[in-house]
Protein backbone atom coordinates (compact mmCIF):
# COMPACT_ATOMS: atom_id res chain seq x y z
CA UNK A 1 0.00 0.00 0.00
CA UNK A 2 2.98 2.33 0.29
CA UNK A 3 4.54 1.42 -3.05
CA UNK A 4 3.28 4.64 -4.66
CA UNK A 5 5.37 6.80 -2.32
CA UNK A 6 8.17 8.83 -3.80
CA UNK A 7 11.44 9.25 -1.97
CA UNK A 8 11.17 12.40 0.18
CA UNK A 9 14.05 14.86 -0.04
CA UNK A 10 16.54 15.05 2.84
CA UNK A 11 16.00 17.92 5.26
CA UNK A 12 18.04 20.77 3.71
CA UNK A 13 19.99 21.34 6.94
CA UNK A 14 20.36 17.77 8.22
CA UNK A 15 21.03 16.62 4.65
CA UNK A 16 24.34 18.51 4.70
CA UNK A 17 25.67 16.13 7.35
CA UNK A 18 24.39 13.12 5.41
CA UNK A 19 26.42 14.26 2.38
CA UNK A 20 29.45 15.05 4.57
CA UNK A 21 29.41 11.58 6.15
CA UNK A 22 29.57 10.00 2.69
CA UNK A 23 32.68 12.00 1.66
CA UNK A 24 35.92 9.98 2.21
CA UNK A 25 38.22 13.05 1.95
CA UNK A 26 40.54 13.55 4.96
CA UNK A 27 40.25 17.34 4.70
CA UNK A 28 36.46 17.44 4.65
CA UNK A 29 34.83 20.06 6.83
CA UNK A 30 31.22 20.16 8.03
CA UNK A 31 30.02 23.72 8.56
CA UNK A 32 26.38 22.81 8.14
CA UNK A 33 25.85 21.33 11.56
CA UNK A 34 24.11 23.57 14.09
CA UNK A 35 25.92 22.15 17.09
CA UNK A 36 28.95 23.34 19.02
CA UNK A 37 32.29 21.68 18.38
CA UNK A 38 35.51 22.01 20.39
CA UNK A 39 38.76 23.32 18.94
CA UNK A 40 39.47 19.61 18.21
CA UNK A 41 36.24 19.38 16.23
CA UNK A 42 34.54 17.18 18.84
CA UNK A 43 31.02 17.45 20.33
CA UNK A 44 31.11 18.83 23.87
CA UNK A 45 29.33 17.66 27.01
CA UNK A 46 29.63 20.47 29.56
CA UNK A 47 31.42 19.61 32.77
CA UNK A 48 28.53 21.04 34.73
CA UNK A 49 26.15 18.70 32.92
CA UNK A 50 28.33 15.71 33.88
CA UNK A 51 28.21 16.87 37.51
CA UNK A 52 24.43 17.29 37.44
CA UNK A 53 24.01 13.82 35.93
CA UNK A 54 26.21 12.34 38.64
CA UNK A 55 24.03 13.99 41.28
CA UNK A 56 20.95 12.52 39.66
CA UNK A 57 22.48 9.04 39.56
CA UNK A 58 23.59 9.23 43.20
CA UNK A 59 20.09 10.13 44.33
CA UNK A 60 18.54 6.70 44.94
CA UNK A 61 15.15 8.24 45.73
CA UNK A 62 14.69 9.28 42.12
CA UNK A 63 11.98 7.45 40.24
CA UNK A 64 10.94 7.20 36.59
CA UNK A 65 7.23 7.90 36.89
CA UNK A 66 5.52 10.02 34.24
CA UNK A 67 5.90 13.75 34.65
CA UNK A 68 2.71 15.82 34.69
CA UNK A 69 1.48 17.05 31.27
CA UNK A 70 3.22 20.40 31.89
CA UNK A 71 6.52 18.70 32.68
CA UNK A 72 8.85 19.19 35.64
CA UNK A 73 7.35 22.05 37.63
CA UNK A 74 10.61 23.22 39.22
CA UNK A 75 12.25 23.26 35.77
CA UNK A 76 9.40 25.39 34.46
CA UNK A 77 9.75 27.96 37.23
CA UNK A 78 13.54 28.13 36.86
CA UNK A 79 13.27 28.44 33.06
CA UNK A 80 10.89 31.39 33.34
CA UNK A 81 13.29 33.04 35.78
CA UNK A 82 16.24 32.43 33.48
CA UNK A 83 14.65 34.04 30.47
CA UNK A 84 12.61 36.83 32.09
CA UNK A 85 14.94 37.64 34.97
CA UNK A 86 14.41 36.93 38.69
CA UNK A 87 12.79 40.35 39.21
CA UNK A 88 10.36 40.07 36.30
CA UNK A 89 6.98 41.68 36.97
CA UNK A 90 5.26 38.82 35.13
CA UNK A 91 6.75 36.27 37.55
CA UNK A 92 6.08 38.44 40.60
CA UNK A 93 2.47 38.85 39.58
CA UNK A 94 2.16 35.19 38.70
CA UNK A 95 0.74 36.00 35.27
CA UNK A 96 2.93 33.60 33.34
CA UNK A 97 2.50 29.96 32.54
CA UNK A 98 5.46 27.81 31.56
CA UNK A 99 5.31 24.26 30.24
CA UNK A 100 8.24 21.96 29.54
CA UNK A 101 8.33 20.98 25.87
CA UNK A 102 10.50 18.97 23.52
CA UNK A 103 13.29 21.49 23.06
CA UNK A 104 12.85 24.65 21.00
CA UNK A 105 11.07 22.92 18.15
CA UNK A 106 8.46 21.36 20.44
CA UNK A 107 7.92 24.64 22.27
CA UNK A 108 7.29 26.44 18.97
CA UNK A 109 4.92 23.73 17.83
CA UNK A 110 2.89 23.67 21.04
CA UNK A 111 2.77 27.48 21.06
CA UNK A 112 1.71 27.48 17.40
CA UNK A 113 -1.08 24.97 17.97
CA UNK A 114 -2.30 26.87 21.02
CA UNK A 115 -2.47 30.09 19.00
CA UNK A 116 -4.18 28.38 16.07
CA UNK A 117 -6.86 27.13 18.44
CA UNK A 118 -7.37 30.08 20.77
CA UNK A 119 -6.01 33.29 19.27
CA UNK A 120 -8.18 35.47 17.05
CA UNK A 121 -5.50 36.02 14.38
CA UNK A 122 -4.18 33.00 12.49
CA UNK A 123 -1.33 34.66 10.58
CA UNK A 124 2.24 34.49 11.80
CA UNK A 125 4.94 36.67 10.27
CA UNK A 126 8.44 35.18 10.18
CA UNK A 127 11.71 36.79 9.12
CA UNK A 128 12.91 36.55 5.55
CA UNK A 129 15.08 34.42 5.65
CA UNK A 130 14.67 32.27 8.75
CA UNK A 131 15.50 28.84 10.19
CA UNK A 132 14.13 26.38 7.63
CA UNK A 133 11.92 24.59 10.14
CA UNK A 134 9.89 27.67 11.14
CA UNK A 135 7.49 27.77 8.17
CA UNK A 136 6.88 24.02 8.41
CA UNK A 137 6.25 24.07 12.17
CA UNK A 138 3.72 26.89 12.00
CA UNK A 139 1.95 25.69 8.87
CA UNK A 140 1.43 22.27 10.43
CA UNK A 141 0.31 23.93 13.65
CA UNK A 142 -2.55 25.44 11.65
CA UNK A 143 -1.31 29.00 11.18
CA UNK A 144 -0.88 30.94 7.95
CA UNK A 145 2.76 31.86 7.45
CA UNK A 146 3.85 35.16 5.92
CA UNK A 147 7.25 36.81 5.91
CA UNK A 148 8.60 40.23 6.84
CA UNK A 149 11.78 41.74 5.45
CA UNK A 150 14.77 41.31 7.73
CA UNK A 151 18.08 40.82 5.96
CA UNK A 152 19.69 43.19 3.49
CA UNK A 153 22.03 41.28 1.13
CA UNK A 154 23.68 44.55 0.06
CA UNK A 155 24.93 45.43 3.56
CA UNK A 156 24.79 41.89 4.93
CA UNK A 157 23.03 43.56 7.83
CA UNK A 158 19.52 44.37 8.99
CA UNK A 159 16.93 45.79 6.60
CA UNK A 160 15.40 47.81 9.40
CA UNK A 161 13.34 50.05 7.14
CA UNK A 162 11.82 47.03 5.36
CA UNK A 163 11.15 45.35 8.71
CA UNK A 164 9.26 48.37 10.08
CA UNK A 165 7.32 48.78 6.83
CA UNK A 166 6.24 45.14 6.73
CA UNK A 167 5.27 44.93 10.39
CA UNK A 168 3.55 48.29 10.04
CA UNK A 169 1.48 46.87 7.17
CA UNK A 170 0.59 43.61 8.96
CA UNK A 171 -3.08 43.30 9.97
CA UNK A 172 -3.67 44.31 13.60
CA UNK A 173 -3.23 41.42 16.01
CA UNK A 174 -1.02 39.32 13.71
CA UNK A 175 1.54 37.07 15.39
CA UNK A 176 5.19 37.99 14.81
CA UNK A 177 7.99 35.51 15.33
CA UNK A 178 11.09 37.23 16.70
CA UNK A 179 14.51 35.62 17.11
CA UNK A 180 15.46 36.71 20.63
CA UNK A 181 19.17 36.83 19.75
CA UNK A 182 21.69 35.33 17.32
CA UNK A 183 19.32 35.28 14.35
CA UNK A 184 19.49 32.03 12.39
CA UNK A 185 20.67 31.94 9.60
CA UNK A 186 21.94 35.52 9.22
CA UNK A 187 23.69 36.25 12.54
CA UNK A 188 22.18 39.74 12.29
CA UNK A 189 20.36 41.14 15.33
CA UNK A 190 18.62 44.51 15.84
CA UNK A 191 20.34 46.91 18.24
CA UNK A 192 18.63 47.62 21.56
CA UNK A 193 17.41 50.95 20.18
CA UNK A 194 15.94 49.15 17.17
CA UNK A 195 14.29 46.58 19.45
CA UNK A 196 12.65 49.45 21.30
CA UNK A 197 11.25 50.79 18.03
CA UNK A 198 10.02 47.32 17.10
CA UNK A 199 8.36 47.01 20.50
CA UNK A 200 6.61 50.35 20.20
CA UNK A 201 5.36 49.57 16.70
CA UNK A 202 4.16 46.08 17.65
CA UNK A 203 2.40 47.23 20.80
CA UNK A 204 0.73 50.13 19.00
CA UNK A 205 -0.71 47.67 16.46
CA UNK A 206 -1.49 44.93 18.95
CA UNK A 207 0.85 42.50 17.17
CA UNK A 208 1.52 39.39 19.26
CA UNK A 209 5.24 38.71 19.90
CA UNK A 210 6.35 35.08 19.79
CA UNK A 211 10.02 34.92 20.75
CA UNK A 212 12.21 32.04 19.66
CA UNK A 213 15.11 31.86 22.11
CA UNK A 214 17.38 29.08 20.93
CA UNK A 215 20.70 30.79 21.75
CA UNK A 216 20.43 32.56 25.11
CA UNK A 217 24.00 33.16 26.30
CA UNK A 218 25.46 32.02 23.02
CA UNK A 219 25.40 35.40 21.27
CA UNK A 220 27.05 37.79 23.71
CA UNK A 221 28.23 35.21 26.24
CA UNK A 222 25.86 36.75 28.83
CA UNK A 223 22.49 35.18 29.62
CA UNK A 224 21.01 38.50 30.73
CA UNK A 225 22.21 40.50 27.74
CA UNK A 226 20.81 37.97 25.29
CA UNK A 227 17.41 37.98 27.02
CA UNK A 228 17.12 41.76 27.01
CA UNK A 229 14.77 42.15 24.01
CA UNK A 230 12.28 39.73 25.59
CA UNK A 231 12.48 41.48 28.94
CA UNK A 232 11.72 44.83 27.26
CA UNK A 233 8.49 43.41 25.87
CA UNK A 234 7.54 41.83 29.20
CA UNK A 235 8.29 45.04 31.14
CA UNK A 236 5.57 46.94 29.29
CA UNK A 237 2.90 44.69 30.78
CA UNK A 238 1.75 43.22 27.45
CA UNK A 239 1.38 39.61 26.42
CA UNK A 240 3.94 37.48 24.60
CA UNK A 241 5.03 33.90 24.00
CA UNK A 242 8.56 32.59 24.47
CA UNK A 243 10.02 29.30 23.21
CA UNK A 244 13.25 28.36 25.00
CA UNK A 245 15.75 25.70 24.04
CA UNK A 246 18.58 24.24 26.13
CA UNK A 247 20.07 22.46 23.12
CA UNK A 248 22.83 24.99 22.44
CA UNK A 249 23.43 26.82 25.69
CA UNK A 250 23.65 23.68 27.84
CA UNK A 251 24.68 21.37 25.01
CA UNK A 252 21.63 19.20 25.71
CA UNK A 253 20.74 18.74 22.02
CA UNK A 254 19.54 15.15 22.14
CA UNK A 255 17.82 15.47 25.50
CA UNK A 256 15.14 17.54 23.75
CA UNK A 257 14.59 19.92 26.63
CA UNK A 258 12.95 23.31 26.30
CA UNK A 259 10.07 25.40 27.57
CA UNK A 260 7.15 27.42 26.31
CA UNK A 261 6.11 30.42 28.39
CA UNK A 262 3.03 32.50 27.82
CA UNK A 263 2.96 35.86 29.56
CA UNK A 264 -0.62 36.95 30.21
CA UNK A 265 -2.39 40.01 31.62
CA UNK A 266 -3.38 38.38 34.92
CA UNK A 267 -2.77 35.29 37.05
CA UNK A 268 -6.32 34.22 36.45
CA UNK A 269 -5.89 34.22 32.66
CA UNK A 270 -2.51 32.47 32.96
CA UNK A 271 -4.17 29.63 34.86
CA UNK A 272 -6.78 29.17 32.15
CA UNK A 273 -4.16 29.35 29.41
CA UNK A 274 -2.23 26.56 31.13
CA UNK A 275 -5.34 24.39 31.34
CA UNK A 276 -5.78 24.79 27.56
CA UNK A 277 -2.09 24.12 26.86
CA UNK A 278 -2.53 20.78 28.60
CA UNK A 279 -5.28 19.92 26.12
CA UNK A 280 -2.87 20.65 23.27
CA UNK A 281 -0.07 18.57 24.76
CA UNK A 282 -1.92 15.50 26.05
CA UNK A 283 -2.93 14.05 22.66
CA UNK A 284 0.42 15.07 21.12
CA UNK A 285 2.87 13.27 23.42
CA UNK A 286 1.13 13.03 26.81
CA UNK A 287 3.99 14.41 28.87
CA UNK A 288 7.60 15.43 28.23
CA UNK A 289 10.77 13.48 29.09
CA UNK A 290 12.23 13.69 32.58
CA UNK A 291 16.00 13.42 32.26
CA UNK A 292 16.99 16.60 30.43
CA UNK A 293 14.69 18.77 32.50
CA UNK A 294 16.14 17.24 35.68
CA UNK A 295 19.68 18.12 34.56
CA UNK A 296 18.64 21.71 33.85
CA UNK A 297 16.86 22.00 37.21
CA UNK A 298 19.92 20.75 39.12
CA UNK A 299 22.11 23.35 37.41
CA UNK A 300 19.72 26.29 37.65
CA UNK A 301 18.84 25.73 41.31
CA UNK A 302 22.42 25.49 42.59
CA UNK A 303 24.36 28.75 42.77
CA UNK A 304 27.77 27.11 42.27
CA UNK A 305 26.70 24.95 39.35
CA UNK A 306 24.91 27.91 37.80
CA UNK A 307 28.08 30.01 37.99
CA UNK A 308 30.11 27.18 36.55
CA UNK A 309 27.62 26.90 33.69
CA UNK A 310 27.89 30.60 32.85
CA UNK A 311 31.67 30.23 32.60
CA UNK A 312 31.46 27.22 30.29
CA UNK A 313 28.83 29.00 28.20
CA UNK A 314 31.01 32.08 27.92
CA UNK A 315 33.94 29.91 26.84
CA UNK A 316 31.85 28.48 23.98
CA UNK A 317 30.68 31.95 22.92
CA UNK A 318 34.25 33.28 23.11
CA UNK A 319 35.62 30.47 20.97
CA UNK A 320 33.05 31.29 18.29
CA UNK A 321 33.95 34.99 18.42
CA UNK A 322 37.62 34.04 18.07
CA UNK A 323 36.81 31.92 14.99
CA UNK A 324 35.11 34.97 13.45
CA UNK A 325 38.25 37.04 14.00
CA UNK A 326 40.55 34.33 12.66
CA UNK A 327 38.51 33.80 9.50
CA UNK A 328 38.27 37.54 8.87
CA UNK A 329 42.05 37.89 9.34
CA UNK A 330 42.77 34.91 7.08
CA UNK A 331 40.75 36.48 4.25
CA UNK A 332 42.43 39.83 4.84
CA UNK A 333 45.91 38.30 4.60
CA UNK A 334 44.95 36.53 1.39
CA UNK A 335 43.69 39.82 -0.04
CA UNK A 336 40.38 38.17 -0.85
CA UNK A 337 38.27 40.68 -2.81
CA UNK A 338 35.15 42.04 -1.12
CA UNK A 339 34.15 43.39 2.26
CA UNK A 340 34.19 40.56 4.80
CA UNK A 341 33.57 42.67 7.89
CA UNK A 342 30.15 41.07 8.31
CA UNK A 343 31.98 37.97 9.56
CA UNK A 344 33.03 39.85 12.68
CA UNK A 345 29.87 41.96 12.92
CA UNK A 346 27.41 39.07 12.83
CA UNK A 347 26.52 37.31 16.07
CA UNK A 348 26.00 33.79 17.36
CA UNK A 349 26.66 30.40 15.90
CA UNK A 350 26.26 31.23 12.21
CA UNK A 351 27.71 33.52 9.60
CA UNK A 352 25.72 34.31 6.52
CA UNK A 353 28.70 34.51 4.19
CA UNK A 354 26.93 35.95 1.16
CA UNK A 355 28.19 33.05 -0.97
CA UNK A 356 25.61 31.90 -3.52
CA UNK A 357 24.47 28.30 -4.15
CA UNK A 358 26.86 27.89 -7.13
CA UNK A 359 29.81 29.04 -5.01
CA UNK A 360 28.76 26.74 -2.17
CA UNK A 361 28.58 23.86 -4.59
CA UNK A 362 32.08 24.65 -5.93
CA UNK A 363 33.50 24.72 -2.41
CA UNK A 364 31.91 21.37 -1.61
CA UNK A 365 33.14 19.78 -4.82
CA UNK A 366 36.68 21.16 -4.85
CA UNK A 367 37.40 21.70 -1.15
CA UNK A 368 35.10 19.18 0.58
CA UNK A 369 33.56 21.97 2.64
CA UNK A 370 29.91 21.37 3.50
CA UNK A 371 27.33 24.08 4.32
CA UNK A 372 23.71 24.89 3.53
CA UNK A 373 23.19 26.22 0.00
CA UNK A 374 22.26 29.68 1.32
CA UNK A 375 25.92 30.16 2.27
CA UNK A 376 25.38 29.83 6.00
CA UNK A 377 28.39 28.50 7.88
CA UNK A 378 28.51 27.32 11.46
CA UNK A 379 31.35 29.15 13.18
CA UNK A 380 31.20 26.52 15.92
CA UNK A 381 32.27 23.90 13.38
CA UNK A 382 35.54 25.76 12.67
CA UNK A 383 38.87 25.54 14.47
CA UNK A 384 42.23 27.33 14.19
CA UNK A 385 43.42 24.35 12.16
CA UNK A 386 40.57 24.46 9.63
CA UNK A 387 40.29 28.25 9.18
CA UNK A 388 43.09 28.35 6.52
CA UNK A 389 41.37 25.64 4.46
CA UNK A 390 38.08 27.55 4.52
CA UNK A 391 39.80 30.85 3.72
CA UNK A 392 41.59 29.20 0.76
CA UNK A 393 38.28 27.90 -0.53
CA UNK A 394 36.48 31.24 -0.18
CA UNK A 395 39.41 33.00 -1.83
CA UNK A 396 39.40 30.51 -4.71
CA UNK A 397 35.68 30.76 -5.32
CA UNK A 398 35.47 34.54 -5.32
CA UNK A 399 38.54 34.98 -7.54
CA UNK A 400 37.64 32.20 -9.97
N1 LIG B 1 14.96 28.01 16.60
C1 LIG B 1 16.09 28.28 15.96
C2 LIG B 1 16.25 29.63 15.35
C3 LIG B 1 17.09 27.32 15.87
O1 LIG B 1 18.22 27.62 15.22
C4 LIG B 1 16.91 26.06 16.46
C5 LIG B 1 17.97 25.03 16.37
N2 LIG B 1 18.58 24.85 15.19
C6 LIG B 1 15.70 25.84 17.13
C7 LIG B 1 14.76 26.83 17.18
C8 LIG B 1 15.31 24.59 17.82
O2 LIG B 1 16.20 23.64 18.09
P1 LIG B 1 15.90 22.49 19.13
O3 LIG B 1 14.56 21.94 18.80
O4 LIG B 1 17.00 21.54 18.92
O5 LIG B 1 15.92 23.15 20.47
From TrEMBL:
Cofactor(s) essential for the protein:
pyridoxal 5'-phosphate
* Record field: catalytic activity: L-aspartate + 2-oxoglutarate = oxaloacetate + L-glutamate
Q: What class of enzyme is it?
A: transferase
Gene Ontology molecular function: L-aspartate:2-oxoglutarate aminotransferase activity; pyridoxal phosphate binding
Documented EC number(s): 2.6.1.1
Q: Name one GO cellular component term.
A: mitochondrion
UniProt keyword annotation of Transferase present: yes
Specify the domain of life of the species encoding this protein.
Eukaryota
Listed GO biological process terms: amino acid metabolic process
Does the keyword Magnesium feature in the UniProt annotation? no
**Entry-linked InterPro entries:** Aminotransferase_I/II_large (IPR004839), Asp_trans (IPR000796), NHTrfase_class1_PyrdxlP-BS (IPR004838), PyrdxlP-dep_Trfase (IPR015424), PyrdxlP-dep_Trfase_major (IPR015421), PyrdxlP-dep_Trfase_small (IPR015422)
Domain Aminotransferase class I/classII large: where?
Answer: 28-394
Q: Which UniProt keywords apply?
A: Aminotransferase, Pyridoxal phosphate, Transferase
Check the record and name the CDD domains matching this protein. Answer: AAT_like
Miscellaneous note, as given in the UniProt record, is: In eukaryotes there are cytoplasmic, mitochondrial and chloroplastic isozymes.
- Quaternary data: Homodimer.
Q: Which family does it belong to?
A: Belongs to the class-I pyridoxal-phosphate-dependent aminotransferase family.
User: Entry's NCBIfam families?
Assistant: PRK09257.1 (NF006719)
Q: What's the protein called, per UniProt?
A: Aspartate aminotransferase
Amino acid sequence: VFAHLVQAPEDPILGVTVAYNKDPSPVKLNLGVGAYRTEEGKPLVLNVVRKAEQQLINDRTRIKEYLPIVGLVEFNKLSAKLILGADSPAIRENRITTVECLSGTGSLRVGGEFLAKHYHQKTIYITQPTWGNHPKIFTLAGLTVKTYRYYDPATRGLNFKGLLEDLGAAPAGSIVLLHACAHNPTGVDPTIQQWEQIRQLMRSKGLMPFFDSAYQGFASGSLDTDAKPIRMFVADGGECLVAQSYAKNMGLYGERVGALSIVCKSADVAGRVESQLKLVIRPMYSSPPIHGASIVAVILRDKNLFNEWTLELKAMADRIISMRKQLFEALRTRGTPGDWSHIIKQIGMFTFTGLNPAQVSFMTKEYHIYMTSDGRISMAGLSSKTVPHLADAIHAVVTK
